[in-house]
Amino acid sequence: MSIIVQKYGGTSMANSECVKNVAEKVVNAKLRGHDVVVVVSAPAGFTDHLVSRAKEITDKPSGRELDMILATGEQISISLLAMAIKALGEDAISFTSAQVGIITDGNHNKAKIEAINTDKLLKALGEGKIVIIAGFQGVTKDLEITTLGRGGSDTSAVAIGVALDAAEVEIYTDVDGIYTADPRVVPNAHKMDYITFDEMLEMAGSGAKVLHLRSVELAAKNNMPIHLRSSFSDAIGTYVLDEEDKMEHVLVRGVAHTTNNAKITIANIDNTSKNIALIFKTISDANINVDVITQNYINIDRITISFTVAQEEYDRALELSKDLGRRLKADEVYGNEKVAKVCIIGVGMKSTSGVASRVFTCLADHNVAIDMVSTSDINITCVVNQDDYAKAVIAIHNEFEL
Amino acid sequence: MSIIVQKYGGTSMANSECVKNVAEKVVNAKLRGHDVVVVVSAPAGFTDHLVSRAKEITDKPSGRELDMILATGEQISISLLAMAIKALGEDAISFTSAQVGIITDGNHNKAKIEAINTDKLLKALGEGKIVIIAGFQGVTKDLEITTLGRGGSDTSAVAIGVALDAAEVEIYTDVDGIYTADPRVVPNAHKMDYITFDEMLEMAGSGAKVLHLRSVELAAKNNMPIHLRSSFSDAIGTYVLDEEDKMEHVLVRGVAHTTNNAKITIANIDNTSKNIALIFKTISDANINVDVITQNYINIDRITISFTVAQEEYDRALELSKDLGRRLKADEVYGNEKVAKVCIIGVGMKSTSGVASRVFTCLADHNVAIDMVSTSDINITCVVNQDDYAKAVIAIHNEFEL
């Protein structure tokens, strides 16, 4: 029998009715003849509640003690789900990550999985049991409790799928798949049947928040198919796969966007690697994440540097940049607090030229000014004025007939 | 440095203010020069909440899965307390029972502690840390999570105290000690400074619900002093000790009572051990606990059996007894749904005769009819009409000048 791993998120575990609904889906998979391993998150809102309990005690809870309290949420979920499955007449057994032996490094709050002991899991599956495992958490070799960071249950599910050589990992969530663009922006966006790992990585890194980035990286590395689907229906969702051959050939798979961006420009400084390093070290030392970077040559000796940051970091980043501008004798330092990022993603671009020029022409035809451009072999990212992002996403979605 | 174990119950952990208050008490003990190990319960009400979550899923949750969910309550408490102690500038570390290695048998919901691994505890204490351990829970050799039953945190604390050869176990609760009688019944009842283990066992078994019975048994067996005291003050509470010599010699240490009793009498049956065994096997097979038992001889061949049960079991017990009465050809089967138990307890009785006669005379003088009497070498239990219990407790409390 093939093993499938199912992962249910917090909204699927929010209350007793939800838990019973999940139990039915799990039992149905078992009755279809699969060996079923289920990975669950804490009930929706519970992790936030625990964090706020900790914050009532201290502004700076230690990472170890925070993990100690956070790990309880998933433990509640696995117990309730095991009870609900047993109530339906199937045998089930729940395991914490310590019981399984989901071994991580010791980086509290953002631990990485190093190994998974499959002995107990295979034994329980061999006894015909449905196995339920607490996601998001791990344990070090010294039995210290760790957590993998927000969204870490997706990563738990993929890692367990890999360890058990599962046929696929089903990730159940509150959307029914991955869309060619955000349906709130593009009304005729449609759910994709397939997407490649590489495309999904670009989508996840560019605003499509349906899958935890690390889980996709892990799936890609181990060629573990992910089936992202809705926990509220039985409809097929989107498969994330390595098999381009199976997919319809398209130039562009989808358009992702983010609107929480701000842009800063340091104009006309000496083009030395020392200067460029100083800029990004200063920003990074202030714990500000830089996203898109462009550098424009004025001549061989002088350049203009632009970069984007999250809008909530804009004021601090602009202040630091003005200071840098003075030190580096820049002509000018200025910013735009409201820009957006539009990302055109598709493995088809690799082998087909002219996609970028079609993007630029399309945006020009629709009077969208492109502020910055950055490209990889499967991703063209355009930074535009925030007011223009919807127009840009719709225009590109139409241009490539998604 | 001497090790002391402190145990705080659920009301002491109810909210963030309570947790901070406990942290201060713990740090004060550390600053007084002790190595401090703290055992905590789940926040008040949280265990009940978890049980009701389980009951929403199924009427009959499996013992294993119930333990899985119940163990989360103490895990939340240990984490918050460790954070609160660190916020006060002392180093602290929390451990689940699985992390320590509090090994129990596999009887879910009522497990017994078999062994405690002290390695991690002694190492952390050696590093100057305050050690915080989840009470109530244990783990089998196979890492199955177990719980010790309601009130089990007291037992956890004593077992840890014994394993660490602690100087004493302080049990913090919402009363300030053990009283010579229930102060709600006897206004001039006073807190005792000392009580022996044996007396405490009789008190705990006779309605004084301040300490979990198993914890006292374990302390007695290992001669581990318990100091029962209030978590809301620094006042000395009551020491439970083996050292009679240190205590003021008294005939009677205290008067305990219960009011939730009912009495059943099966009158005039053949005096055979087979008959007596049949009666108590029938009642016990129905999962009804029998408390006080007396048998009165009518002549050498015929006896009358009386016993008490909890009031909520009265109807079922009476029905079974009437059936038994018919089979055993009893003259009559009758009951009293409302009786009370008054227990006079003191190790001084062992060596002093005449206590029982003083009790009977005292009650007679106050017009309290004694329905049943049962005695051990340190306990005289009188069953009286429920309306008379307060009069009886007050009269005896005065008679022995408690």
Your description of this structure?
The structure is a homodimer of 402-residue chains. Chain A is an alpha/beta fold and 402 residues long. The first copy, chain A, has a domain of 172 residues: Carbamate kinase, CATH 3.40.1160. Chain A has an 8-stranded mixed sheet, with helices on both faces. At the A-B interface, α1, α2 and α3 of A face α1, α2 and α3 of B. Chains A, B: This is Aspartokinase.
Describe this structure in a few short sentences.
Two copies of one chain form a homodimer. Chain A is built from twelve helices and 18 strands.
What's the β-strand tally of chain A? 18
Shape of chain A: globular
CATH superfamily of the domain at 3-174 in chain A: Acetylglutamate kinase-like
Q: What is the ordering of alpha helices and beta strands of chain A?
A: EHEHHEHEEHEEEHEEHHEEEHEEHEHEEH
CATH class descriptor of the domain at 3-174 in chain A: Alpha Beta
Query: Largest interface, counted with CB-CB under 8 A?
Result: A-B, 36 and 36 residues
Distance between the termini of chain A: 38 Å
Given as residue ranges, the uncertain stretches of chain A (5+ residues, pLDDT < 50) are none
Global structural class of chain A: alpha/beta
Helix content of chain A: 25-40%
- Main sheet overview of chain A: 8 strands, mixed
Please state how the strands of the largest beta sheet of chain A are arranged side by side: 3-6-2-1-9-11-12-10
Mean of the pLDDT scores of chain A? 92
**Total of DSSP H or I helical runs spanning 4+ residues of chain A:** 12
The name of the CATH architecture of the domain at 3-174 in chain A is 3-Layer(aba) Sandwich
Bin the strand percentage of chain A: 25-35%
Oligomer: homodimer
Under CATH, the topology of the domain at 3-174 in chain A is which? Carbamate kinase
